[in-house]
Amino acid sequence: GSSRTPACTCLLQGVLYGIFPAVLLGAAAVHVRMAPVRKLDKHLRKIFEDRKEEAAVGSVSAADARDAGSSVVSLMGDLKAVYRFKDVRQVSLLCRAMRKWDEDGVPDKEASEFGEFILKVSAVTLARNLNHQICLLYKPAA
Predict the structure, then answer these.
(1) What are the distances in angstroms from CA 6 to CA 1, 3, 17, 131?
(2) Can you say whether the dihedral through the CA atoms of 57, 63, 65, 66 is positive or negative?
(3) Which residues of the chain form beta strands (DSSP E)?
(4) What's the whole-model pTM score?
(5) Which DSSP letter does residue 79 get?
(6) Is 22 left (phi over 0), alpha (psi -120 to 50) or beta?
(7) Tally: H helices and E strands in the chain
(8) Which of 64, 62, 82 is nearest to 72 (CA)?
């Protein structure tokens, strides 16, 4: 005979049968929550690529700017017209795209440039937000 009590069996079955719907519900909630962020990321990447091409066509090429220690983003003008961020959370979610390294642990240049673009656009649009200013001032040691 089984030494389990009916309450123990009921609890076990509840956990076993309830875990899968809970995981699916959590995944669906994340998908719904991140959909606007993915859409914004796609939109801003298109703008970034367009502006990057425009900057490269200008008097200084992107490769020359990078060799001089400057970035492509510094060659872009009128960042205030790109997008008006609502809050710092939007910026932090979008900046996660910067977290891309190669197999040697070196940050990906394209991802870093896009992250710099996001930070500079947010610095222009969230200039009066103290939380954003603190985030920009914080610079982890390399």
Answers:
(1) 13, 10, 16, 53
(2) positive
(3) none
(4) 0.68
(5) G
(6) alpha
(7) 5, 0
(8) 62
Contact by Cβ (8 Å): 65, 72: yes
Contact 70, 112 (CB under 8 A): no
Please write the tens of the pLDDT for every residue from 49-67: 888 887 777 655 555 555 5
Report which secondary-structure segment, H or E, holds 116: helix 109-125
- The single residue listed with the structure tokens 């060659």 is 75
Structure tokens at 57: 């066509």
pLDDT in tens, 77-88: 777 788 888 888
Question: Using CB atoms within 10 A of its CB, is residue 114 exposed (0-12), middle (13-18) or buried (19+)?
Answer: buried
What angle in degrees, to the nearest 10, is found between the helix axes of 109-125 and 6-57? Answer: 90
Cα–Cα–Cα angle for 6, 12, 16, rounded to 5 degrees:
145
Rounded to a whole number, what is the distance in angstroms from the first to the last CA of the chain?
A: 63
3-state secondary structure 57-76: HCCCCHHHHHHCCCCHHHHC
